[in-house]
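Why do we care about 3D structure at all? Because function follows from shape, and shape follows, mostly, from sequence. That is the central idea of this module. The next example makes it concrete: a single protein chain, its amino acid sequence, and then its structure expressed as tokens.
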Amino acid sequence: MNKSYLTIIYVLVLLSIGVSIFGGMKIIRNENFIKSENAAPSKQEFMKKNEKKFDIVFKGLFIIVMLTMFIGYVFPGVMDLPNVINNNYQVIDGIATNSAAQSNRAFPKIVTVQSKSGQEIRLRFYSKYSIEKGDKLKIIYLPHLKRGTLLEHS
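And the structure:
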């Protein structure tokens, strides 16, 4: 498994935990996320008048984003941590059931792979190659995060 990819994943996990602790403490202490004193002088009156409304909206958005991060990264990341520590990764050898075009961007490809046994798994991985439907792939991946590294492509 690509160690730099694992590092990125677990940095995101740790950042999510840190930000959620920071935000959670603000919510528990009933502190405002946005303070009217920090606004531009021309906007301070408007901010003071609407400070509670903005605070409720920002706290609600914060909770939604943090729940999404916990469901998508933190819980699966914690569940996969023993696999990472023990170098116990899953390997799938199968055929791509969808395409993922070549891209110069630093974003992972999302491809559904069907194994020889008929099991389909949707995985994210980095590749400089274009993946077409029907390509044979061998991918090493984390079972809960569903992120991996392309080993073979033909």
